[in-house]
Amino acid sequence: MSIRKLLRGPSIAAAIAAATTVLLTGCVGGAATAPDDAGKTTLHLVGYAVPKEANNAIQKKFAETPEGKDVTWQESYGPSGDQSRAVVNGLKADYVNFSLEGDVTRLVKAGLVAEDWKSGPTKGIVSDSAVVIVVQKGNPLGIKDWSDLTKPGVKIVTPNPASSGSARWNILAAYQQVIANGGTDAEAKAYLTKFFNHVAALPGSGRDATNAFLQGSANVLISYENEAILARQSGEDFDYILPAATIKIENPGAVLKDANPKANAYLDFVLSTAGQEEFVKKGFRPVSTNTPVGEVVGANNPAEPFPVPPKLFTISELGGWDAVNAKFFDEGGLVPEIQKATGRSQ
Amino acid sequence: MTPSAGTVEAEQSAPTTPAGTATNAGGRRLPRAKSATSLTPISGLGLGIALMWFSLLVFIPLTAVLVQASAGGWSAYWDALTSPQTLAALRLTVGTAVLVTVVNVVMGTAIAWVLVRDQFRGKQLLEVVIDIPFALPTIVAGLVLLSLYGPSSPLGVNWANTRVAVFLAFLFVTLPFIVRTVQPVLLELEHEVEEAAASLGANRLTTFRLVILPSLAPAITAGAALSFCRAISEYGSLVLLSGNLPYSTEVASVRIMSSIEGDKLTEAAAVASILLVVALIVIVVLDLISRRVARYA
C-alpha cells in the first residue's frame, strides 16, 4: 500500500512537470515560429475554400510586383459563414474573400471592416459566377431549362439553403427566373414548390452536393458555373447547362480596417486584369468586362467560356440580401413554408 | 473448570485486544479513516487539477450554452423549440438514437463476447477494425456509407436520403462504444463462477441472466449512454448521406448548423440545450436500469 502510494505521488508530480515542460516549450515554439524580419510582411487571408487555387495564383503574381515583394501569406480556408464568424471571434485577417456579401456585412457590424467597403468600382465584389444546371453526361433527360426540372423522373440535388449560405443563390435563381420570364410571385412560388417536390437531397455544401450527384443520388445538380468548370477540370464527366434566365453570383472581398496597408495593394491587384485572369482560369467570371478571357478548360465551350444568358439578374434586383433572407429563408419565410408543405407529403 | 476457563478467556482476550488496538492505531485504521475524510497534499492537488480541468472543458462551456440559450428570453427559446421543423428534427434524432442504442446493446455485447470468449482466425484483425469508426473522420464515413448503401450500391440497395441512412450512419459511428466498455469486464469475469452456477443446476440462459448479465450491466449501460450521446450529436457523416430533407431526414445538428448560418445563436443554443437535457435524462434512466439489473447479482 505505502509503496504504491509513494510511487503514485512522484508519478503525479512527474506528470505535472512533464505537462508544464510541454506547455512551456509549446509557448516558446509558438513565439519562435513567427519571425517578423525587417522588410518582410505577413498578410493573413481568410476565405471560403473554393477560390483557394485562384487566390494562390494571384498571390504568386502579386509577389512579382513592387508592392507584393517580400509578402508572405498565412491563409485559412473553410465554409464562408464559419470563416466570417471566426474573424469576428478574433481570427487574424488582413484580407477576406467570402462567397456572400452577408459574410462581409457581419464584419462591418463587428466594426472590423469599414462601412464604405462597397464604394469601389466593383462594389466590393472580386469574382462573379452564375447558377447552372448540371446533368449527367449526354443529358439523357434532355433538360434545357428550369421548366424541365419539374418533369416526372427528375431528381434534384442542391446544397442545403439553410445550412449553406451560398446554396441560397440556387433557390433564388429557380424562383426569380419565373419572374424574369414575366411570371407573377404566385407563379414563382408554385414553381418553387414543384421544384422542392423533386429535390432528392440537400447536402451540407456545394462541394458535398457535387459529390452526392456524382455518387448518383440524383440526375440533376443545381450548382455554380465555377464549381461545374472546376469539377470538369479535375476530370469529372458531366454536362452543365446555363439556363436562359439565371442569377449572377457575386463573391465579395474586403480589407480589414486595421490591416497592413499592403492588403489594400493586394485587393487592387486582385481587381486588376492580372488578378482577374487567374479567377477566369478557375472558371469564375471576371468582375470587369474588359478582362481578356482566354481559353477556359472545363467550360462547355472553352473558347467562349462565359456566354451571357438572355436574362441575367442580380441580387440587388431582388432587393439585396437582407430583404431576400427575410422573404425567403428566415423562419416563416417562403422556403421553410414550402419545405413544410413538400416535406410532409414525402 | 471455571477459573481455568476464565483465565483462558482472559488470556485470549487480554493479549489480543491491546495488540489489535495497537495495530489499528499504528498501521491500518488511522490511514484508512484519514483517507476517507481528508486528502493528502498529493491527492488534494490531483483533485484540484481534475476539477479545474473539468471546469475549463465542461462546466464553463455548458453554462455558456445555457446562458446563450436564455439570452433571448423565454419567448425566443420557446419559438425555437416549437418550430415544427425543429420538432421533427428532434423527434427523428432522439428516436433513431434510441433505436441505435438498443441495437448496440445487443450487438455490442455479442461482439464483445465473441472477441473475449472465442478463438478464431482474424480475431486480432477484428480487434483493430472495431475502433476504425472512432478514427475515421465522419465526413469520410458518410462518403463510404454512401458508396456502399447509396444509388451505386454493390448490394443493390439505395438507402441514401432516407431515414435508413440516418440509422446506418448512427450505427456506424457508435459501434465501438459498447464493445469497448463490455470487453474488459468480460475479460475479468471469473469462469469458475459460471461453472459453479452450472454445477448448481442452472442452465446457460439462467447463468447468463443471473450471473453474467448483472456483472456486465454497468459496462453495458455506460457504453449505451456513450453511444446514445454520440448519436444525437452526429453531423459529419450525414451531410452527404441523409440528404438533410426537412421533416424527413433532417437531424437536430443540421438544425443547429442552420441556425448558426443564419446568425441565430439563441436558436442554436436552445436546440443544443434540449439535446443536453435529453442526454441527461437518458444517462439517468440508464443508470437506474443498470442498478436494477445489478441488484439480481
Quick structural summary:
The complex is a heterodimer of chains A (346) and B (297). With 346 residues, chain A is α/β, with parallel strands linked by helices.
Structural notes for this entry:
Chain A has helices spanning 2-32, 52-62, 80-88, 101-109, 167-180, 185-197, 206-214, 225-233, 262-271, 273-281, 320-329, 334-345; strands at residues 41-48, 71-78, 95-97, 125-136, 156-157, 199-201, 220-224, 238-241, 245-255, 311-313. The longest helix of chain A is centred in the first third of the chain and has 31 residues, at 2-32. In chain A, 45% of the residues are buried. The N and C termini of chain A lie far apart (66 Å). In chain A, strands 1, 2, 3, 4, 5, 6, 7, 8, 9 and 10 form a 10-stranded mixed sheet that branches. With 346 residues, chain A is α/β, with parallel strands linked by helices. Residues 1-36 of chain A have low confidence and may be disordered. Chain A has 2 domains: 41-126 and 250-281, D-Maltodextrin-Binding Protein, domain 2 (3-Layer(aba) Sandwich), CATH 3.40.190.10; 128-249 and 302-345, Periplasmic binding protein-like II (D-Maltodextrin-Binding Protein, domain 2, 3-Layer(aba) Sandwich). Chain B is built from 13 helices and no strands. Residues 1-35 of chain B have low confidence and may be disordered. Chain B is globular, with a radius of gyration of 27 Å. Helices cover 81% and strands 0% of the residues of chain B. Chain B has a single domain, classed as Orthogonal Bundle (MetI-like fold). By secondary structure, chain B is mainly alpha-helical. The relative contact order of chain B is 0.12.
